[in-house]
Write a structure and sequence with these properties.
Layout (H helix, E strand, L loop, with lengths): L33 E10 L5 E5 L10 E2 L6 E2 L5 H5 L7 E5 L4 E4 L4 E10 L10 E4 L11 H10 L4
Parallel strand pairs: 1-7
Antiparallel strand pairs: 1-4, 2-3, 2-8, 5-7, 6-7
Length: about 160
Amino acid sequence: RAPKCLLCPWAQGCKGRDTAETLPRRLPKGEKPTRRGAVFWLTDTTGAVLLRRRPESGLLGGMMEAPSTPWSEGPSPEWDDAWRHAPIAADHRVASPGMVRHGFTHFHLELVVLTGQADEETVAPPGALWCPIDRLGDQALPTLMRKVAAHALGGP
């Protein structure tokens, strides 16, 4: 920020001499890839939503999420292919209009929200739980999942 060109022993051959105030120059940011997937907003007969804990390591480690398909570059998954990734069987399956968009440091994410209702005998799979809607605020939900919840519940 305050170069001392006159005192520098390398001043004679310096390519940055007299322009040091502008150095270092930031490189233009590269284009971030976009990954796509589907997220499942699955409810039971009481209206509670199925959440699971993400693995401790990695992106959003240890936080709660609505289950989803893998996130990959390319088009959003087709309806039947997406439902193959659902952790439970569900009836009344619907794709919510629009999608949820979120930006991570190294990529953009676009998720289609697929909703469905489990029958009353459905038990949450291992590592998952049924969370009453009015208790969502008690869960460690990342911003992405808050966006998914708002979208699924018809919010902004």
